[in-house]
């Protein structure tokens, strides 16, 4: 990339090494945004830069990167910030958030005029698949998430046990989680705790007929966006970060209630009490049957979802938006 005097001099001040569990979003975000920004402007060593992009969870933003404008790209899934988060973000010169919802939550702790929304993108590797109703194999419902309650595995388990689906040969539930390193099958439930390559993950999306995302709160909701990009009919509450890209036109929304709960940080021992979303379990079950019984309509929603993500939520667009912000406000 040839240097241009008008280009913002950017130092990449972070890297996420973990690519599973709650760290998956940060890992993908670091990897993809760095790659696509590097296609627009050159990246510099710290000593030659005027701006730093730091993509980390706030508790890891220990010290401000010196002598440059700090653009901290971060998020939180609850409605109130833990004190360590609220204190940490004050060090940044500017905040970047992946969704409008997160920006609105942060506004109680940090000036809105110095906070900007830069949505995540989805790699074009997550290709659209034209699906058909499965006549000779089970109808596969897919859930993907870290093994913590925020991702909704408890809701899925309740639905499967009590919604007439468990051990019904017409259906299959595929639970993809992390940190188990095993692949187990019990009745018509598959529990996959292996670390998958991107190619294997895409193949898993392609193998499914419906995606379940009963989240209690998201900074963005990358796995939902990935599923939508492949054309999967998706079920999710219309709440938190997903509202920037998900609605009833491109998927199946479910009602929810807000109440007290805990956001858990697996691997850190941290837990934080906050207000979270509780999806309506009965409505999720009804949506699952609705999709199964009218799959043609569901596939049309999936097609529209794929078009929306492919046209509006790309890493190219994210990178250009961020470069433009730094050009206007950075050093």
- DSSP helical segment count: 9
- Compute the average pLDDT: 93
The major sheet is characterized as:
7 strands, mixed
What's the SSE pattern? EHEEEHEHEEHEEEHEHEEEEHHH
Q: Which architecture name of the largest domain does CATH use? A: 3-Layer(aba) Sandwich
Portion of residues within helices: 25-40%
Structural class: alpha/beta
Shape: globular
- CATH third-level topology of the largest domain: Rossmann fold
Distance between the termini: 20 Å
Uncertain runs with pLDDT below 50, 5 residues or more?
A: none
Number of strands: 15
| Spatial strand sequence of the major β-sheet | 9-10-8-7-11-12-13
- The number of distinct structural domains comes to 2
* C-alpha Rg (nearest Å): 20 Å
Overview of this protein structure:
There is one protein chain. The chain is an alpha/beta fold. It folds into two domains: 10-121 and 314-329, Rossmann fold; 139-312, Rossmann fold. It has helices at 24-37, 83-89, 100-106, 153-162, 198-207, 222-229, 281-293, 295-312, 315-329, and strands at residues 10-12, 43-44, 51-55, 69-73, 94-97, 115-117, 139-144, 171-176, 183-186, 189-192, 210-212, 234-237, 252-254, 256-265, 270-279. The strands form three sheets. A seven-stranded mixed beta sheet has the order 9-10-8-7-11-12-13, sandwiched between helices. β11 (210-212), α6 and β12 (234-237) form a beta-alpha-beta unit. It is globular. The model has no long low-confidence stretch (mean pLDDT 93).
Tag the structure with descriptive keywords:
alpha/beta, 9 helices, 2 domains, Rossmann fold, 331 residues, 22% strand, globular, 15 strands
């Amino acid at each position: 990339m040839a240097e241009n005097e008008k280009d913002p001099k950017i130092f990449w001040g972070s890297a996420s090494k973990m690519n599973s569990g709650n760290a998956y979003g940060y890992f993908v975000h670091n990897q993809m945004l760095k790659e696509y920004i590097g296609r627009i402007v050159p990246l510099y060593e710290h000593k030659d830069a005027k701006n730093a992009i730091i993509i980390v969870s706030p508790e890891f933003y220990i010290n401000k990167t010196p002598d440059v404008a700090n653009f901290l790209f971060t998020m939180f899934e609850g409605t109130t910030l833990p004190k360590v988060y609220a204190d940490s973000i004050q060090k940044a010169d500017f905040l970047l958030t992946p969704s409008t919802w997160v920006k609105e939550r942060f506004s109680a702790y940090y000036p809105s005029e110095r906070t900007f929304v830069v949505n995540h993108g989805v790699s074009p590797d997550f290709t659209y698949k034209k699906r058909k109703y499965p006549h000779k194999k089970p109808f596969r419902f897919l859930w993907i998430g870290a093994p913590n309650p925020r991702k909704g595995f408890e809701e899925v388990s309740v639905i499967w046990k009590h919604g007439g689906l468990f051990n019904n040969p017409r259906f299959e539930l595929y639970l993809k989680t992390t940190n188990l390193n095993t692949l187990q099958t019990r009745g018509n439930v598959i529990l996959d705790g292996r670390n998958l390559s991107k190619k294997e993950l895409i193949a898993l999306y392609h193998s499914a007929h419906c995606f379940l995302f009963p989240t209690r709160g998201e900074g963005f909701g990358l796995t939902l966006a990935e599923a939508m990009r492949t054309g999967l009919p998706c079920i999710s509450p219309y709440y938190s970060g997903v509202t920037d890209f998900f609605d009833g036109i491109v998927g199946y929304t479910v009602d929810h209630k807000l109440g007290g709960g805990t956001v858990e940080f697996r691997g850190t021992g941290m837990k934080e009490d906050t207000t979270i979303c509780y999806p309506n379990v009965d409505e999720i079950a009804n949506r699952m049957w609705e999709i199964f019984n009218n799959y043609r309509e569901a596939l049309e929603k999936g097609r529209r979802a794929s078009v929306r993500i492919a046209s509006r939520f790309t890493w190219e667009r994210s990178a250009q938006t961020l470069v433009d912000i730094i050009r206007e406000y950075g050093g």
